[in-house]
Amino acid sequence: MWIKNELKRQVNFLALWLASTVSNLGDGLFKWGLPIIATKLTSSPGLVAGLTFALTLSWLLFAIPAGIIVDRIDRRQLMIRASWIRAMIVCISAVAVAMDYFALPVLYLSASLFGICETLVDTAAISIVPSVVPSKKLEWANTLIMSGQTVTNEFIGPLLAGTLTAISITLTLGSSCIAYLIAAISLIFIRGSFKSTRLKYGSVITDIFEGFQLFWHQKLLRTIALLAALMAGCWSAWSSILVVYIITPGPVGLSEFGYGLLVTVLAIGGIIGSILVIPTQRILGRRKILLISFVTMSLMLVTPSVTTNTWIIAATMLLGGIGSTMWNILVYSLRQHLIPSAFLGRFTGVSKFITRGSLPLGSAIAGIIAEIANVRMVFIFSGVISILSVILFLKLITTEALDEAEKQICLS
Asked: Which sequence spans correspond to the domains of the chain?
C-alpha cells in the first residue's frame, strides 16, 4: 500500500511539474511575443506598455475572486478548464492574425482575457502543491517547479518568441496554443480529489473577509507581500518598457532576436537561483537570502538608467534572475507551510491582489513617464523605488520574526 501511494504521489507531481513547465512555455511565447508584435504596430512606448497593463490588470480586479473559487472547487479541474480557455484565446488570436485582422485592440483584448485565466491557474497551482507533496518536501517541489517555469517562461519562451515572430506572428501564437493544450492533457493524469478540505462554505462576502482577516493576522507574510508589491510594480514598469529601449531604434539597438537572447539571461539566472536556493538557505538563513534577492533585483532595475552597454545590462539581469527565483521559492514555501490548505486559495488570492495588483499600476506609470519624459526616466523611477524597498526590508523583516516562522514550520 505504501509503495502504491508513493508511486501515485510521484506520478501526480510529475504530471503537475510537466503541466506547469509546458504552460509556462506558452506564457513565455505569448507574454514576450506580444510586446514585439506591438512594436510592429506602434512606436508609442505608452501603447506598448499598455499591453503589460492589460495582461496584469486581472490581478488587481480578479485575484480575490480567484482565491475564493480555488477554495470552493477542485483545483485540478480548475487548472484544466482554464488551460483549455487559454488555448482557445491564443488560437483565436492566431486566426485573427492569419486573416489579417491584426490591430492593437485585438492584442489588448487577448491580453485581458488571458490575464483572467492566469489568475485562476497560478492561484490554483500554488494551492495544489501541498496536496501533492508532503510538507517536508515543499522546498524541493517548489524548486523543481520554479526551475521548469524559469527555463520555459524566461529562457526558451523569449528566445522562441523573438525567433518565431521574426518569421511569422501566427507561428508564435500557434506554438503558444499547442503548449496550453499539452498542459491541459498533462493535468488529466493527476489522480485524486483536490478540492479544499473545508467542511462548509459561507457567503462570498464571508470568504473575502476571512481571506483578508487571515492575511492581516499573518504579520510576517503580510509585510513580505507589501514589500514584494513595491518590487513587483518596479519590475512591471521596467519590463513593460524594456522592449522599446532594447530593440532598434531604441538606444541599445538590438534586433528582435537579440532582444530574445538578452531576456533569456534572466532565465539563466533563474536556473542558477533554483540550484543555489536550498544550500545557501542552510548556510545563510532565509532572511539573508531574501535580502540578497531584493538587492540583486534593485540593481537590475536601475542599471538601464545609467548605461546602454548590453553586457552590463545582461550581467545585472543575470543577478536579477537569480534573486527573483530564490525569493519566489522561499516565499511560496513559507506560505504553504504557514497557511492551512483549506485557506490557501483565499490567502493566496489576497496576497496576489497585493503583490501582483501592483503590476498594472507599474506598467501604467511607466507608460505615462515614457510619454511625458523619456524611457530612461522609467528606469530611474524603478530603481529609486526598488532601493527604497530594500531599506524597508532591513527595517521591517527581522531575524526574530523569521526565526519564529521557522519554529512553526518545524512543529507542523
From this structure: 1-190, 202-411
